[in-house]
């Protein structure tokens, strides 16, 4: 009997762990789309009401963010996700972590390496996750 009680009590934890894994896998796919400036994938992955705040303090909506990638105003050479943790609250998920971004300047071709903390908020609608808010902070 104790075994069955344990299974019943553990089920929500197992379901949440699966959801967290799903969100972290989605986050990696979004990073890959960003790296390759995959505008079609980003269109699907980003919510229409997106608020994206860069570590520079620049704030963008979905259209502005995608336009930067479409017009190659931003070019990431590498994004290394060093740490990422997810928490899922029904159809909302939050990830926090640290990543190293290597960006190539479109002005002079120079390479900038930034060590950043990030917070990302996701919403699931019709079985799909989308980014609704993103913010990064430079690690000194």
Task: Describe this structure as you would to a colleague.
- By secondary structure, the chain is an alpha+beta fold.
- The chain has a single domain, classed as Nuclear Transport Factor 2, Chain: A.
- Helix content is 36%, strand content 46%.
- It has three helices and six strands.
- The chain has helices spanning 2-35, 39-45, 62-70; strands spanning 46-53, 59-60, 75-89, 92-104, 111-125, 128-138.
- Strands 2-1-6-5-4-3 form a six-stranded mixed beta sheet.
- Strand 1 and strand 2 (59-60) form a beta hairpin.
- It is globular.
- The N and C termini lie far apart (54 Å).
Short characterization:
This protein is α+β, with helices and mostly antiparallel strands and 140 residues long.
Radius of gyration: 17 Å
Q: What is the CATH level 1 assignment? A: Alpha Beta
Distance between the termini: 54 Å
Cα shape = globular
User: In which order are the strands of the major sheet placed?
Assistant: 2-1-6-5-4-3
**What is the succession of H and E elements?**
HHEEHEEEE
Please, how many domains? 1
Task: Quote the average pLDDT.
Answer: 90
Structural class category: alpha+beta
CATH topology annotation? Nuclear Transport Factor 2, Chain: A
Figure out the total of helices.
Answer: 3
Largest sheet: 6 strands, mixed
Beta content comes to over 45%
Looking at the overall shape, the CATH architecture is Roll
The low-confidence runs, each spanning 5 or more residues with pLDDT under 50, are 3-15
Helix content range of the residues, please?
25-40%
Total beta strands: 6
């Amino acid at each position: 009997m104790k075994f069955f009680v344990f299974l019943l009590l553990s089920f929500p934890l197992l379901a949440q762990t699966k959801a967290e894994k799903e969100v972290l896998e989605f986050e990696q796919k979004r990073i890959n789309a960003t790296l390759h400036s995959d505008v079609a994938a980003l269109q699907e992955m980003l919510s229409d009401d997106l608020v994206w705040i860069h570590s520079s303090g620049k704030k963008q909506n979905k259209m502005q963010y995608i336009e930067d990638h479409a017009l190659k105003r931003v070019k990431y050479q590498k994004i290394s996700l060093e740490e990422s943790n997810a928490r899922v609250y029904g159809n909302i998920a939050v990830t926090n972590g640290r990543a190293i971004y290597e960006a190539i300047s479109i002005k002079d071709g120079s390479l900038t390496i930034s060590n950043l903390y990030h917070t990302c908020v996701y919403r699931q609608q019709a079985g799909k996750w989308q980014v609704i808010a993103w913010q990064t902070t430079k690690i000194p």
